[in-house]
């Protein structure tokens, strides 16, 4: 008796080729200004590449003698990042519970909180910083408030979605036993969600250092103010040193975060 012959596996080459062709056509169409696409001027790149190359050469030579002037602003940036992350962490706990379905069965309240969080996330952090600098003045406070808003949007969005995606059979048992939602959240949802919160809090701390460097450009304090000042004077060797210091700080915070995450598991 001969062995059964399996039918050949269906191939999707034609469909794959059509999808790739459609993507290529859409990409080409976005580069045609005549139909509303962006204009990519490669000739300008060929004409002006030397200007960029000169700045890159300057950036490749960090001015180490400038390091003492960066200590104070860098400490200010770290303080802004830490205060912003801690404040956002405290605020994110109740807001996340209001935004997650298992911890807040009230659909109107939940949808309202989510809409508010989406609105907070939709506004760019530079816009927040610009408005707050105009309202409060130049300094670290506008930067801290901006970081709190940014962190709050990120943490609430990611943690509430993670809570939604998790099975919660214990909540049904708790409700059947007559437990109130507040009691159930405190006894069941929060203990299981602490690792999720901790991961996002540490991640927001890393992000804050990077964002602080940008916020300083609009006067929100930190190392960004010094970065913008040296850039305005075309002191790209000093800019290079500042960027290098930000990189080192971000890497150190990431290593510390990894250690803390392993301990929290």
Question: What descriptors fit this protein?
Answer:
265 residues; mainly alpha; MetI-like fold; transmembrane helix; transport; MetI-like; MetI-like_sf; ABC-type phosphonate transporter activity
- Biggest sheet layout: none
Q: What is the H/E string?
A: HHHHHHHHHH
CATH architecture: Orthogonal Bundle
Q: Estimate nothing, just give the exact number of structural domains.
A: 1
Number of helices: 10
Distance between the termini: 57 Å
Point out poorly predicted stretches.
none
CATH class equals Mainly Alpha
Task: Describe the protein in words.
It is a single chain. The longest helix has 35 residues, at 181-215. The termini are far apart. The chain has 265 residues and is mainly alpha-helical. The chain contains 10 helices and no strands. 77% of the residues lie in helices and 0% in strands. It has one domain (59-264): Orthogonal Bundle (MetI-like fold), CATH 1.10.3720.10. Helix 4 packs across helix 6.
């Amino acid at each position: 008796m001969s062995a059964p012959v399996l039918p050949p596996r269906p191939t999707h080459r034609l469909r794959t080729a059509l999808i790739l062709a459609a993507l290529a056509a859409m990409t080409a169409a976005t580069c045609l200004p005549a139909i509303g696409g962006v204009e990519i001027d490669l000739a300008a790149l060929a004409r002006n590449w030397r200007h960029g190359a000169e700045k890159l050469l300057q950036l490749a030579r960090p001015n180490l003698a400038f390091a003492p002037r960066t200590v104070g602003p860098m400490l200010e940036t770290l303080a802004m990042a830490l205060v912003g992350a801690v404040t956002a962490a405290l605020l994110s706990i109740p807001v996340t519970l209001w935004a997650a379905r298992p911890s807040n069965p009230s659909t109107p309240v939940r949808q309202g909180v989510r809409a508010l969080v989406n609105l907070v996330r939709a506004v760019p952090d530079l816009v927040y910083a610009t408005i707050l600098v105009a309202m409060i003045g130049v300094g670290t406070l506008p930067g801290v408030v901006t970081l709190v808003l940014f962190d709050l949007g990120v943490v609430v969005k990611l943690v509430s979605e993670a809570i939604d995606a998790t099975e919660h059979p214990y909540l049904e048992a708790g409700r059947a036993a007559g437990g109130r939602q507040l009691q159930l959240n405190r006894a069941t949802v929060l203990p299981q969600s602490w690792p999720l919160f901790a991961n996002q809090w540490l991640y927001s701390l890393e992000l804050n250092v990077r964002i602080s460097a940008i916020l300083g450009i609009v006067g929100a304090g930190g190392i960004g103010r010094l970065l913008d000042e040296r850039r305005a004077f075309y002191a790209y060797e000093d800019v290079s040193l500042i960027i290098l210091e930000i990189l080192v700080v971000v890497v150190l915070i990431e290593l510390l975060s990894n250690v803390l995450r392993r301990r929290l598991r």
